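Dear colleague,

Thank you for sharing your sequence with our group. We've completed the structure prediction you requested, and as agreed, I am returning the results in plain text so they can be pasted directly into your records. Please verify that the sequence below matches your submission; if there's any discrepancy, let me know and we will rerun it promptly.
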Amino acid sequence: MKGKGEMSAEEPGRVQVLEKTVRDIVEVVPEPIKALLAALAVLSIVLGGGYLATAARARGLARQRADLLQDVGLLQTALLPPVPSMVGGLRTSVAYRPSDGPGAGGDFYDALALPGGRAAFILGDVSGHGRQALARTAFMRYTLRAYLEAGLEPRSTLQVAGRVIGEHLDGGHFATVVVAVHDPVDGSLTYACAGHPAPIVVGASRPEPVLAGSSPPIGLGLRTGLRQTTVPFPSGSVACLYTDGLVEARTEDGMLGHTRLADIVEGLGRGATADGLLEAVAAEARLVSDDMATVVLSPTAGVTSGGFRCEHLEVDAEEAESGLTERFLTACEVPTDRLAEAAAEARALAARHGGAVLSVRFGTVDPRVEVLPHNVTSLEAASRLRVVPARSSA
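Please find the predicted structure tokens below.
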């Protein structure tokens, strides 16, 4: 019996025979075949290593994709929160459609109920995409929301929040935004824009926005929140807040544009929804190269209307001297003789108080221009104020 590791007398001979057989086989194999076998062996090693590397890379990509999808989910939640179908006295719908891939763009919206049955709405677009836009956009949305909840009107919200947000938009980033507040008591919709398209409002009338003196985007180091508009918003009306992806959609005739978008909103009627609007735009467009986001609003039955429209512009002393007030009043169709008087009043008040606010009211029994110091809100509070009648353009 052999112990472990011991070799029998016959085994050395067998090993020698096996080695000789292998040598004989190798000797008779042609050199080209030997080279081919060697190449195949090397190829097998390379392919095996490549497979292992590919498998490792695939696992890494899978982890990155999972992280990306998680980031996208967080991003969309921060930018595009759920919005109830009724906010205050308005039927509300929201929709978002990315131009390509997961919804990771800089478009965002928000809606919140305010005291007294009022409702506020925010829609904006922050430059940048992906996870880098998350912190900037979330900070912007919550900052705007906080100032609206504090009771500031849209123009003041953009002024104050714009300064705070602008300090955090580093690296050349900027943001456009529109803020709107609905008041069911007088049936009005008041909005202010910072580098953003004005809302489309259709119904018994279809007021065109006054673009003179439009405020710049947030983050450019410029004063913003200088303009504000109030329009009647009675039952049967529809308002549409939208990002520029809608008007920049490419059709057979070029860009869709503001006028055509307003036609689509009007054609959808009082039952218009945000999803329906995006579907209508997508059906007409050949190419949508940017994200599209929209908020569509309509008053519930029984909401009354004040029946007026008002345009506001705030100017500082330098702006009052630059001709901005004249351009604004001209766009509001104020008669030339009265325009000069109101512009002079704005220059005087801006020089004395650091700023002035011009308010042009349309559609009332006594249409007029009011010029107030920027830190007062009524005629009674303003000293030496003159009220200059203006021609109605309702």
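Summary note from our side: The radius of gyration is 34 Å.

Kind regards,
the structure core
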